Structures are given as C-alpha cells and as structure tokens.
Amino acid sequence: MNPLLRFIRGLWHGLDVLRRVLHLLLLLLLLVVVLAVLRPATPRLAARNALVIRPSGELTEQVEGEPLQRALSQARGENQPQTLVWDLTDAIRAAATDSRIQALLIETDDLNGAGQAKLEELAAALQVFHRTGKKIIAHGTLMLKSQYYLAAQADEVYVDPFGAVLLDGYERYRLFFKDALDKLGVDMHLFRAGKFKSAEEPYVRRDMSVEDREESTVYLQALWSGYQNAVAGARGLKPQQLSQYTEQYVGAVKTARGDMATVALDAGLVTAIKTPQQVEARMIELVGQDADGQSFSAVSVDDYSRVLNAERHVHFDHRPAIGVITASGEIVDGIQPPGTVGGVSMAKLLRDARFDPQIKAVVLRIDSPGGSVFASEQIYREVLALKAAGKPVVASMGDVAASGGYYIAAPADEIIASSSTITGSIGVFAGVPTFSRTLEKLGISSDGVGTTALSGAMRLERPMSGPISDLAQTAVNHTYDQFVARVANGRGQTEAQIDAIGQGRVWAGADALRLGLVDHLGTYEDALAAAARRAHLPAGYRVRRLEPQLNLAQQLAFQLQSSSLRAQRLFGIISVLPAHFMKDLDPLDRELARWQRLSTPDQAYAYCFCTVE
Length: 613
What we know:
This protein is an alpha/beta fold.
C-alpha cells in the first residue's frame, strides 16, 4: 500500500478514536454535572425538630432500579415506588439520641404495602425511640394492614375524618391457566420433588391442590395471629378485640351510617379523629414552629440522613467490621442488579468479604422466595468458603427466605428469623411447555430424523416422550436429595428428619423455630449482635453494607432488558387498555414475568410462590 495512503488511513483512525474518547468524556462530564445539580445541599437543623417518617411505595430490603433514574424522578417530585427499610430504621435509631429531634411524626398515606417482618424491624427501631420519652405521632387517611401496623407503634394515632382503619387479614389467591393453555393447545409438563411444592400448579390445575390449601391456611393463620398480637400489644388492646373489629366491621360501619373513622375510634384503634391541620397544630405544640412560622419545625428522613452522613464522615476507619450482604429478590443465574439475587454477583460479594481483612463476620440478610438451583448452589459454596476462612456467617431472614432463599441460609453458623418470616419450602420443580398441539391448530406439523433417541427430544414443538419425562423427574429428584443433604448438614439433622419437614412445605418463622430450621426469633439487630459475638468483636465495631456494583454497560443492558421484557408480556395486548385495567391485570403480568424467568428447560428451580397480601 502507498505509504501516503497508510499515513492518511492511520491518521483517520487515530482521529476517530480520539473523537470517541472525547464523546465519552463529554458524556461522563454531563453525568457528573447532572448528579451535582440533583444532589441537594446538606440542610441545617434547628434546635428542635420533628423527624417525619413518610414511607413511599413498597417497603423493601433493597431498592431496585438505577440510582440516576431514581434521582431524576425524585427531582421531578414523583413518589418513589420503593422505600428502603434500613434508611428509616437508621434514621429513627439515630434520632433517639439526638437532642435536636424532639418528636417523630409518621405519615402513612404514601405507603403501599410492606411485609410483616420489615414492619417488625421498623417497630423495633420505634421502640428504641419511644424509650427515650420522646413522643411519636401517627396520622393517616385509609389505613390498611401495613399502614396501621406502623401507625399503631405511635403514642398518639390520628385518623382523618374521611379516613378508615380496615384490617382484612391475610390472603393468598393465584390465577390458574390450565384451561387457557388447553384452548391454546399448550401441554405443560411439571416435574417436582415434594408433595407440597405447588410452585407451578397454576399451569396444570384449575384450583389449589389439597396440600397447597392446607399449608397456606396454616402459615396465613400464623401471620394473622402474629399481626394481631403485635398490633394489640402496641395499642394496649387484646388480640381478640382486633379479631372482633374485623369480623364485625361491616355491621359497625352500617350502624355508624358509613362513618368509618368513628368506628375505628370507638374500637380504640385510634386516639382521635384529626385533620392534617389539627395534627400540624399538635406538632407545633411538641417542637415549635419552623423558621417561616408556617408549620412545625420538621426534617425528612432524606435530609436527616444527609446531615448524619456529613457529621459522621470519616476518611480512614480501620475498625473491624461486620459485612452485611442483602439477598433481596428472586435468585437467578449470572450477574444481576440490586433487587435481584444473581448467582455470580452475590457469590462475588461473599468472596470480596472473605478476602477483606477488615470484615470479621458477615450477616446475610435474606428476603427471597428462591429461584435457580444452580445460582443458589453458587452462593451456598461461597458461604461455606467464608466459614472455612474463619469468618462467622449469620443468616437474618426477612419476610421470605424460602426454597432457594432457605438453601443459601442453610450453611450459616446461625439463622435468625422473624416469627412471621415465610421459610422452608425445601423442594424442587422444573416445568417445560410443549406446543405440538398449538401448531396442529395452525396446520403445522414437525417431522425429521435424529442419530440417537435423545436427538431432538427436547424440542418444544414436539410432544414429550416417556423416557424424557422420566429423565426430567429423575433429575429433579436428585436435585431435591442434594437440597435435603445440604440442609441436613447445615442444621445438624439427618436427611430423613429434613425430608419429613421438607417436601416443599412452607412454614412461618415460629413453626420453623420449633422444627429446628432456624435457631432464634429476632431482628436484624439481633443478627448483628450474634455475628459480633461469634467474631469476638469489641464494642464500637463498624457495619459495612456490600452492594453489587455494575459498570455502565451492564446498567444500560439491564435497563433495556427490563423495558423489552415488560413490553413483550401479555403479547402487547394490555398496553392499549386504560390504566385502571392495567392495574387489575398486575397479577397476570407478574405471573407471566415469573414464567419468563423460570422456564428454562434444562434448569431446576427451588422457588416458593408463597407471597401473601
């Protein structure tokens, strides 16, 4: 090639590379500027303030989504779809000993729901605040189970004149798709180990099985009993009073001619009926007016957390630490963002803790219904490696630590659960759909040849043969045996003992304690104390939260994948429906989303479809 042409081509290539680098630098600069603009300045606290607890959306163990997207929506004044429970508990515990915080106001209207174990964590923090003698005030309009559980922890509970306290108990209803699949000509092949393993029954049945109904009734009743005891204790009532309130609610509302706020007041569930303006006046009595003289002196959790972070900021802290790793969401293969437990990404966090000289013990906080067996096994192995390295591991269970969620807890030195934790579900399933009858309806058939009996046997457009069905069931049985063996080894029981309480059966935390599946009932703080005790840590140890870190390319990939999957679900049909119809179809949307995640033909799953409302 002509030397001049080579020079020009090289120069052009160099300029092109420079252009790309400059574009990347410009994008990074813009990102830094945007983040700097969105980040509010650290506020200044007055001498007397009320800390305002106003959880938005679902209370969660780990916030899903990207930080930049959350910051943008927050800057636009949008309610956040999730609130991190630890942001609230950390702020409340700090406020208990802060002389600048004289009272606490709980506003419940923006809370969409929360699991009972998360609410118990909040209640424990509020009890710390209460013991200081500072007042806790709660106010809300429509208080359902979650909202009222939180409000009941207050010294004074106020409901709006147009409000209500509606306690409807716990439920578990699922959609069943067998008839729809039959009409479409889809054959669902379900393989499971454990007679109570009901994960994919909606695809092969028209209603709940006897086993599913039995176990669901037991743990739902345990949750409802725990709820009544906790709330009644906080309000100075008897659990029977709450039960009577719920059972007689319709009649009481009729007698009150629809005045539901008065019904709650007469039952002793609230202190008084007050408007927001009257609650505001009460808060002024407690902490005084703000600088503008327009309201009471208040600070939000976000602002208070920024103040605390600024005051606590230390560049070099070499104190020994307990590493806290949160396994929140479904367990799936590979690298996953926060809100989903990735087998690779979670194993990496555990590995990082193992080789970090400052981390002396680990609390594995689990709020997961399980998922991929292989991903669970990857995490299980790293927990064993941590223990082998001499670092104690304490599993702390949230609302759900079942199936794969229990699998990763089993090897821990100690397991601490809430009495309302849903756990167990030691069982395995695999589901494979075939579409030969669907294609026949369209006039399409499949034919061909293969070199062995296994050739083409797993093609989804062909009927499943008997030998392949036997092969799948044998593999699932083997995986279940491995699951049982791992639990037996971790819990110091025989495989026969674990099999007897396994079989895919779901247990509430209190029952799990009786059966030896957990060691103690307690909170996250109890788990920290247990880890410190096992690691022989002195007072003043640090707590470090380890979170998965995704690079920019991974963040973009997950963002695109999430948008694409949601657009595909329901075949795009419901996207043209009105918003209120879309909300009604959320259960179907969630089922189809699960189906997309749990439908790999060569994968076994330890998953518990045991969420409750």
